[in-house]
Design a protein that fits this description.
Layout lengths: L2 H15 L7 E2 H10 L6 H12 L4 E4 L6 E4 L12 H14 L5 H18 L8 H13 L8 H8 L1
Antiparallel strand pairs: 1-3, 2-3
Helix pairs in contact: 4-5
Length: about 160
């Protein structure tokens, strides 16, 4: 792989490791996590990467701590990678089922992903689209008969 591709993949991995505010990660923690993913670069190289990336992404650097703490702006919305229909459907059903079971802090942390899933799929919380209803009906009909997922039926429902 060329050096340019290595840098691109390292930047992508680094961005995936940075949490959304109010959560944060220290530069040294990000460096260790990058190394776990096979990117062996000097700490200073990664620090320069963060500075470069902050010019293009809404990254927040908290300089009151040493090492610096990094996070994405709380309002940052990202669609990378884009959700496919099956993933969006899974997230919508998950939200519907778990909303009353999870603590509010967990719901708050997942809100962005749930909103993105509804947007990608065109569903609203109060008015599930026909596909969502078909999945519910399909599950009701299969309950107790087929314990495993039916990939063909799922893909047909999602398309």
């Amino acid at each position: 792989m060329s050096s340019r591709q290595d840098t691109l993949f390292r930047h992508q991995a680094l961005l995936q490791l940075i949490p959304r505010a109010p959560h944060y990660r220290a530069t040294t923690t990000l460096h260790a996590l990058l190394e776990e993913r096979g990117f062996n670069v000097e700490l200073r190289t990664m620090q320069r990467d963060l500075e470069k990336l902050s010019a293009h992404f809404p990254l927040l650097r908290d300089g009151t701590y040493r090492p610096f703490h990094w996070s994405f702006d709380a309002s940052f919305k990202s669609n990378l990678p884009a959700l496919d229909t099956a993933t969006a459907l899974t997230l919508v059903l998950t939200e519907e089922y778990l909303r009353s079971l999870l603590p509010q802090i967990a719901i708050d942390q997942l809100t962005g992903q749930f909103e993105n899933a509804r947007q990608v799929s065109g569903w609203t919380q109060r008015q599930p689209a026909g596909a969502l209803e078909r999945v519910r009906q399909s599950h009701s009909q299969r309950q107790g008969i087929d314990p495993g997922p039916d990939r063909t039926r799922c893909l047909a429902t999602c398309d």
